[in-house]
Amino acid sequence: MTEQHTRPQPFAPSRADDRMLERAEADPHRPRFHFVSPAGWLNDPNGVGQWNGTYHLFYQYNPYSPVHARIHWGHATSTDLVHWDDQPVALVPSDDGADADGCWSGVLVDDDGTPTIVYSGRRGGRELPCVAIGSDDLRTWAPLAENPVIRSAPAGVDITAYRDHCVWREGGRWRQLVGSGIAGRGGTAFLYDSDDLRSWTYVGPLLVGDAAVGSPEDPDWTGTMWECVDLFDVDGTDALVFSAWDDGVTHHSLYWTGSYVGDTFSPERLGRLDYGGRYFYAPQSFRDEAGRRVMFGWLQEGRPDEATVLAGWSGAMSLPRQVTMADDRTLVQAPVAEVATLRRDGVRTEPGRLTEGSRHALTAGDQLDVEIDLVLAPSSTFEVALRVAGEPGDADGERTRLVVERDEAGDAVLRLDRERASRDLAVDATAREGAVPVGSDDLVHLRVLVDRSVLEVFANGRPLTTRVYPTRTDALGVEIAALAGDVTVYRAETWRMADIGHGQRALWPTASSPSRA
């Protein structure tokens, strides 16, 4: 039996919508080589994967306004993980079904050749697992009439929230994790089992965190609820990724490496997925046809809601990252190799030894890819200043500072200083930091990608992601300096990065109306 379903009627192309698109495209803070929605609101990456050679990126999307409300699933495709084509909106909230208030985060799976989405349908303040079936080309989707496929959270458990999914095939059956939290204990992922993606048996919590350890201000606090759980194998070691959430506030994304055996996960090492905290959130990954573990994350805004509404857009997607496992069983990340195809006009300099107080200018711009190899002497400090306008200390100047410090014991720390990044006092200027592993040769490899307001930094494979909003049009300078001690720079190479060229965009790409199966 098929139940017909059409899109809700409030949306219709109008001059007002055109103006939102125009404002978004004109905003100087809008990234040019990161994926962004046509306009409106973007958050979590969803259903990321590769199908018959084509990469698919679904995402949380509100085409009506740059605010989080009545969420749809946007959809884009790529053949190279860099250039993206908008596709018809995949999931639309129903008029009165399980997803009437929004189609929240989920995953894409291959059900014996049938593309299938498992997602959280929101209605009346609750999120429950739903399923939608796709066409062969993944352009149209039909949610099941019997949604939700799980009617309630586990009985007898006092949960803090319940949503987001990780689904995989194991031993001829389907397994699913649903992100949640147990009141008074901490975040968790509930494990389910099924043979058809429709009837699910609750198994139990895969792992339960301890929210009593630390506080939301701590960078390794595991939260009262886990969002966007993701379980996968990297180079023979299991990793459980989750985003820490507490009472409606997003905090940061973390991971445990360990061992998934049977119905439980035995954690061994807790790590921070990104030193930028909430600026890299709700990540989702997949294994592509080349065997790589590829991950995307949502890059939240650091300016007030009023500013994003005026700009006509909110939220960007991270660059796709390849995730590997280090010898110490921590995750290492780097932009996928295809990102380098956007490089133009490379300039290589070899400044050699920088003594304390010396400063050197690199190629200026607001769309850059910078790679630096350096060795820090004990008790030395190295700085990369980005989006620079004016001299250090200028009252009217702007600069975003990345500082790498090495103490006498040989440990290194990466710090982000945004105190003078913008003259706009309403934007976030919180400092960020994280440990940088250094090998026996003490080499630090920095890769810094600047894309207007987006900054993605990788220090020996440890990322720090953030957002910056300079107000000066000349805030384009890039400088390196030794702030303390001696620093040997073996290589400093800079490229301008090309636009990915979305072309003509529409809030709602044309498609036939989906039906309910």
Q: Could you walk me through the main structural features you see in this protein, from its secondary elements to its overall organization?
A:
The protein folds into two domains: 15-335, 5 Propeller (Tachylectin-2, Chain A), CATH 2.115.10; 343-497, Jelly Rolls (Sandwich). Helix content is 4%, strand content 51%. The model is unreliable at 1-13 and 511-517 (pLDDT under 50). It is mostly beta strands and 517 residues long. The termini are close together. A hairpin with a 3-residue loop joins strand 10 (173-182) and strand 11 (186-194). Strands 23, 24, 26, 31, 32, 33 and 35 form a seven-stranded antiparallel β-sheet that branches. Strands 25-34-27-28-29-30 form a six-stranded antiparallel β-sheet, with no helix packed on it. The longest helix has 12 residues, at 15-26. It contains two helices and 35 strands.
